[in-house]
Amino acid sequence: MSLRSRFVWLVFALALPISNLLHLLIEWVESGVPPVTPPERQGFGSRLLQRGLALESEAI
């Protein structure tokens, strides 16, 4: 497979919906890359994101 047939398309956008809260929208599309396998263990970054997102979801 040539490198030209592989790509990652990443789009960021900021949205201000009716609630007047600023939202970050992320769209990630991959093509021509090998399938992702679940990690064997959870690292510091994963735990940090999960805790931060849990706190944010309780605040809303």
UniProtKB/TrEMBL annotation:
Q: Which UniProt keywords apply?
A: Membrane, Transmembrane, Transmembrane helix
Protein's name in the database: Uncharacterized protein
Does Transmembrane show up as a keyword for this record? yes
* TM segment ranges: 7-26
| Domain of life assignment | Bacteria
Q: Does the keyword Membrane apply?
A: yes
